Amino acid sequence: MDGGITKLLATRVPHKRVIAIDANPAMTAYGQSVNSLSTIEFLTQDMCVSWPELSDDIRRLESKVDLIFSNFCFHYFNDKSQLLSQCRQLLATGGCIQAVCLLHHDLNQKLPANARKVWCLSIDQQMNVWRRALEGNGFAIDVFECEDETYPMNRQQIIAFLPVIIATLKSKFETNEQFVSETRGLEDVLFDVLCNPVADRPNPNAWTQFLANKDVNEVVIRSKVLRLVCHKN
């Protein structure tokens, strides 16, 4: 959380109070340091825990929140149903969620049959997980759309970005050892999916070749995102 979205919300959305939450205390402190508006409050909280484990500051907001806004954050939560259950408890009747979520790339479309990952869901499967979690928690869905996004990146940006994308998979595993084991060597296939998602033939050396070719200074990353708006009846 760099505070940019928080400041934008506080200046454009009518409100009494904006509460910005991040699991990392350093990011919470930074967001607070660059925002001086008196109506913004910053809290450090890991929202992956169960409701009873949340801080008193969070639980005191039960049934009082009008809007929950998430910009590329919800995809870090492996248990979508628990996340949405907590959102429902926080929201007042009629309160809504507006979120943009990254959908994980379907690596299996690039992997040979004997190397496919059981934890890697297709885009349709991921959409179904979200829809079931929303309906199971009694949300009325207003917008539920999968969209294609493209992001031009220079060489330095993509070299820094690829490990971040791999890190988003961490929530799929119970231990760090499992995460390291399952994602070891995925850079080539992930880079291939990011840059050439519909290519007929996978390139098993895509990342290795990119790093070796110093003449390639820009790439275009292709991703799918879920745009979600729902409300509590």
Automatic annotation (TrEMBL):
It holds the Pfam family Methyltransf_25. One of its GO terms (molecular function) is methyltransferase activity. Residues 3-95 form the Methyltransferase domain. InterPro entries: Methyltransf_25 (IPR041698), SAM-dependent_MTases_sf (IPR029063). One of its GO terms (biological process) is methylation. Keywords: Methyltransferase, Transferase. This is Methyltransferase domain-containing protein. It comes from Medioppia subpectinata.
